[in-house]
Amino acid sequence: MSPKPLALFVKHDGQSARAALTCEYKCGNACFHEPPNTSEGAYFGDIVSGLNRRGLIKGGAAAVLAVGAASALAACGDDSDAAKTPAPTPAGTPGTGTAFTAVAPNKEDALTIPEGYDQQVVIRWGDPIFADAPAFDFEKQTAAAQAKQFGYNNDFAALIPIEGQANGYLLVVNHEYTTGPMMFRGYDKAKPTDEQIAITKAAHGMAVVEVKGEAGSGKLTPVFGKYNRRITAETEFLLTGPAAGSAFTVTSADASGTKVLGTFANCAGGVTPWGTVLSGEENFNGYFANGDLASDPQGRVKRYGFAKGGTPNQWERTDKRFDLSKEPNEANRFGYVVEVNPWDASATPIKHSAMGRLKHEGATIYVTDSGDVVSYTGDDEKFDYMYKFISSRKMQSGTGASAMRHNLTILDAGTLYVAKLTGDHPDKIDGSGAVPSDKGFTGKGQWIPLLETGADGKGKSLVDGMSAAEVAVFTRLAADKVGATKMDRPEDFEANPYTGKVYVALTNNDNRAKDEKVAGVDEANPRKLNKNGQVLELTDNHTGTDFTWSLLLVCGDPAAADTYFAGFDKTKVSPISCPDNLAFDPYGNLWISTDGNALKTNDGLFSVILDGPNRGETKQFLTVPKGAETCGPIVTESHVIVSVQHPGEADDATPDNPQSHWPDGGTSQPRPAVAVVWKKNGGRIGV
């Protein structure tokens, strides 16, 4: 059957291209609740106005090459002062890697790529990843089958070379959320069957899949390899750090407070230089029912956005741990950075509470020349914060078991910080997005310490009135207390492989300066009712507490007065809206995937030149099918990989009324999938 025209622009919020169905199942309608951050700490504009009035360690390198040679360098750098801008040394002339014809904005039900390139679907929802897994049958799904098949709504992806195999890789993918009405014919949102609930739990989590490259092309073919693994909402995890064993993480099923079943709402992530994969538990609050019935004298439940009544997935109907009125501590065991060793399919994954509990978009690792390990992460919520974790442990080189055991503890010891920013031109920020100076939007910042965790896993609170366990579990409240800067949904962080600068996707915030009850505009968040988002550039003293910053992009329609492309000619850029995930190519160009394009066209993947006369030049490399989100970009010399999430997801979409037939075409049901793009002549991407 032919799909009906898709309502690409959301009628109920006037902001993004997300369907109401996506908002309901992906983030629990976060945009339609008041932002959980109602703290009265001074926001950025108040602070600045007041002031004005008065090197990669060798070893484990194979794992780091996950996104090309440049990525290996992204985990290394120097300790130069924030005031100093490292001289860029990209592998080639600035702009190398962006020589392709930009794809025009569109509303097609296709993965649209530049001329001269080819594409392939690598793996899709339901594809078997074990030899004994059944072939996918949309009409005959079971939880047992789904646990052995590729999960739903793929997000972050990593492509990690297998040592000793010229064309062998591990593809590691997050499965962020499920959408029952799209997955099952005749689905009853008010009362899904027990089996449907079990299937959705099995479709969450992560997947590790061996893939084989094809000489002479960019094709990647999944194989039933020894590393293949599914991690679901029922997989056992080990909780470490100050939250582990505390009064806040003990449940009726786990007196130790350390054994957690499952991970879900896994959004972005990162590959560590020691060969593991990090994943951020983001919209976990949407999985727990009856927040209004939980005791909350200190506002902890409210600050994390737990809603009243039931949840979209209805897991609480078959598992009491998802009912806060019955298991009030279960939710405190989610919202962490998780670490998976993809080289051992039997290894217990870890949840690192030393890095704080929040709606982690992901986590990015940076290793200095002196071997210090630093992680950056964002709390993806309107008016929430940016964080940094500096480990007190250094990485051990080598790929043996001893080195891996040590390196798996790196993120268990160190200091957690939250960011506070000030602007250089506070009197010129009026909410219009007007550029305040010929240098653009600029400022300084500090990292404020919240929590110190020792080698023994015990914590020391650096926030008055809170214990170490409280800071680890209720990190948002700790950050509120120290007056961190309220940002416009900080999502992915990535470090430039050549300059060490750190880039942050700030997706949007239509509540910014909406009224006197919320934070007003400031130089890092310069627009009222921000629909299109911006990209922040940090020049950080990675192991220190000072940094400088600037806005690289203020996104939207280039023809609009409130957009900015690092000073580049706006008539020569592609429109871009709602930046979400970030990646670097081997030449030092930034690549941005989008989520919820407010410009009424399909989401896409964009390259941005960071240095030289074309700094700020933004070009669209691909667009995903209608209704879909672009996730998990990987850009190497020979491959561009994207996760195509929720294709065809629209308010009136059902299996009987599909709004997309991607990726299989014909009259098929839409299926989230990972796709790869390569140059037809076997050449380098963008060269």
Automatic annotation (TrEMBL):
Residues 656-670 have a biased composition (Polar residues). Residues 647-672 are annotated as: Disordered. It holds the Pfam family PhoX. InterPro entries: PhoX, TAT_signal. It comes from the Bacteria. This is Phosphatase.
